[in-house]
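Holo prediction. Input below; ligand is S-adenosylmethionine.
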Amino acid sequence: MAGPLPVGDPAPEDGHLPASALASTSPLSAYIHVPYCRVRCGYCDFNTYTASELGDARRDDYASQVAREIEFAARVLGPSVRPFDTVFLGGGTPTLLPAADLVTMLDALRTRFGIADGAEVTVEANPDSVDAEYLHALKAGGFTRVSFGVQSAVPHVLATLDRTHDPERVPEVVASAKEAGLDTSIDLIYGTPGESLDDWRQSLDFALALDTGHISAYALIVEEGTALERRIRRGEIEPTDDDLMADMYELAESKLSEAGFRWYEVSNWARSPREQSRHNVAYWVNNDWWGFGPGAHSHVGGVRWWNVKHPHAYAQRVNSGVSPAAGRETPDAQARDLEEVLLRMRLASGLPINAVDAVRRADAQALVGEGLIDDIAYEAGNLVLTFRGRLLADYVVRRLTD
Ligand SMILES: C[S@@+](CC[C@H](N)C(=O)[O-])C[C@H]1O[C@@H](n2cnc3c(N)ncnc32)[C@H](O)[C@@H]1O
Ligand code: SF4
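Structure of the complex:
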């Protein structure tokens, strides 16, 4: 299972929030976690469960459990309830549930909170768990966007990742999503053991031919405790070296920008500002969001909390009317500043220089000299990574925060 939850402070059973948090007027987002997968991919450490791992937790009752947490959230927020600007159903594999269940959860958000006009409402989908009828049902129910987990177009790479979908089906389901009137996005992973630069080029060409408005390309993280990590430890497969990883990122940037995409976060590209993921941007600029479901994290007005991880424990809590939160914390100003640097430095919109103190400004100036922070943006008062800076984003952030 995924790594442990943070420790934090105990969370009150009635979920009450301090008046200062309730006074927040930040835009509000909703994340709904759907913790089910047909099989577990060897690289994944998300909080998700296959049928045999679920015990007596019931999948067919999941939409009504989440609806109970939505009711609970509306009671906790009281007069601070406001319509959601963005909604994201992620997983796990939300599309393992019937489309009607996903629509039921969205309806509950709409009834108790409201969904803002023009809101972005995304669902993650595995290409092999949806068809045209399913996608039309999502559109009719109010979803606006689908994010497909494609990862690669190359069979041996998909096999190493334990992906079960047939890449040949992907163009058909993406076309069906567009036909249904949904915006579309693709997730790719690069740096899988055994993947060559040519394999990666093939996946990028495949993704571009799908003609979606948004593409995420993530460097494979070998997570502790995953099957992938064990295979590497046993010497069955070799991790990809950093130079090849950098070449792969460079190839992604050049092919995507040639095709008219612009980066707006280190791992995310969109064809136009409208097609950026507003939901992810809401996390990165630290707006308020309520995360529903097992293991989901929330942030409202400076208070953060996280739900119990197992679907069975979650069901018990929400069914008996108590908060499913396992712990909470209120980060102090120093922790908040650190996080702001960490998140904003990954964005093309950057970090305002006046958000950092004099010592960090001197570090930033040195990083401009090293070609890692853009000199023109710097003159205009903003810290933005150069292309080389994006390759070394973690190093830049460390330099600005140590
Ligand atoms: C948790 S998955 C949920 C979506 C859906 N279940 C799927 O796999 O298509 C969201 C995305 O995270 C990315 N991801 C998951 N584990 C990763 C890892 N270890 N390294 C890099 N990216 C990862 C994948 O691109 C995946 O599409
Ligand atoms: S389908 Fe997605 S969430 Fe499920 S195990 Fe694979 S990567 Fe993780």
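DSSP finds 16 helices and 14 strands in the chain. That is the main takeaway for now.
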